[in-house]
């Protein structure tokens, strides 16, 4: 439906393409994940569906999530703020939401430049309890964390919406901060640290399924989703270039990879690609239990690629 809609939009007048209310209805009715992103837009921007005023307390954050919607669903590209015109989405959000994309990016960078947390150099083996505490005590980080936790509340958990929120959370911070949060650790049996880690990493709402899917199914489901497929392709090509897809059906090849020390690039680009997987099914906890013997090797390979942090230590 969105492919047809996009073709329609490219041939219609500006007045028609500005009909963001119509796009909103299309988005809500589409079975492609768009509704979950839109629900987060409404939640973070505090939109009244029947009203026409922008009630967003955080206008910068509101605009940022709108651009995330437009990036993931290009049909909304005319409903995002540009430097040439007011947001056409002002039919829902009001004139306060007319900041252009470059201004948003600069403003967010300015906010983070004033953050003490963003000035810290990344070091391995930071505890998640310390990282969580530092984020809460940092005004900029705490503001973003609060928005994310609001959507990912266990009491009203919607997995897709929570994944959208955690995607927004990690995309909207400097790379150094994202590293600190992604690669924090806990030493058993520190329950407080593990609870802090769950908060930072979206557990249970964003990454836990009952029963847990097989890692093979996770990758296959990801490849059927356009957004996830792009992130997986980037992650695979950046971190695991030597792991050829031809190897997936070759038992001897798989055994060699799994038994050997599977090297990955471990570059900054690889870390960024790994962090970019937040908010997709690639970060879902998965298992290799109860699988047919023929699938075990491939499952172990996928589990290692998706969840092992040995590449980054």
From TrEMBL:
GO terms for cellular component: external side of plasma membrane; receptor complex. This is GFRAL protein. Belongs to the GDNFR family. It is found in: Cell membrane. The keyword Ion transport does not apply. It comes from Turnix velox (Little buttonquail). One of its GO terms (biological process) is nervous system development. SUPFAM superfamilies: GDNF receptor-like. Residues 128-205, 215-311 form the GDNF/GAS1 domain. GO terms for molecular function: signaling receptor activity. Its main location: membrane. The keyword Signal applies. PANTHER family: GDNF FAMILY RECEPTOR ALPHA-LIKE (PTHR10269:SF1), GDNF RECEPTOR ALPHA (PTHR10269). Residues 1-17 form the signal peptide. Keywords: Cell membrane, Glycoprotein, Membrane, Receptor, Signal.
């Amino acid at each position: 439906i969105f492919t047809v809609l996009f073709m329609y939009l490219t041939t219609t007048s500006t007045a028609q393409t500005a009909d963001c209310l119509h796009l909103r209805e299309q988005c809500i009715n589409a079975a492609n994940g768009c509704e979950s992103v839109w629900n987060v837009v409404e939640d973070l921007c505090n939109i009244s569906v029947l009203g026409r005023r922008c009630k967003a307390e955080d206008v910068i954050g509101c605009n940022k999530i709108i651009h995330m919607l437009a990036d993931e669903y290009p049909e909304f590209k005319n409903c995002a703020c540009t430097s040439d015109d007011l947001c056409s989405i002002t039919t829902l959000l009001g004139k306060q939401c007319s900041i252009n994309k470059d201004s948003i990016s600069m403003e967010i960078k300015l906010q983070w430049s004033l953050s003490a947390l963003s000035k810290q150099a990344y070091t391995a083996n930071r505890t998640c309890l310390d990282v969580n505490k530092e984020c809460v005590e940092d005004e900029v980080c705490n503001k973003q964390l609060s928005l994310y936790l609001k959507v990912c509340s266990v009491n009203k958990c919607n997995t897709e919406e929570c994944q959208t929120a955690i995607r927004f959370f990690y995309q909207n911070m400097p790379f150094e901060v994202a590293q600190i949060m992604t690669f924090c650790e806990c030493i058993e049996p520190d329950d407080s640290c593990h609870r802090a880690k769950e908060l930072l990493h979206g557990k249970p709402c964003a990454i836990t399924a009952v029963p847990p899917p097989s890692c093979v199914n996770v990758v296959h489901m990801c490849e059927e989703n356009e957004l996830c497929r792009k992130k997986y392709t980037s992650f695979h090509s950046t971190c695991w270039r030597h792991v050829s897809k031809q190897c997936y059906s070759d038992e001897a090849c798989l055994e060699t990879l799994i038994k050997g020390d599977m090297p990955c690039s471990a570059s900054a680009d690889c870390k960024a690609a790994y962090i970019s997987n937040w908010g997709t099914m690639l970060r879902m906890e998965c298992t290799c239990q109860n699988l047919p013997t023929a699938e075990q090797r491939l499952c172990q390979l996928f589990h290692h690629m998706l969840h092992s942090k040995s590449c980054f230590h």
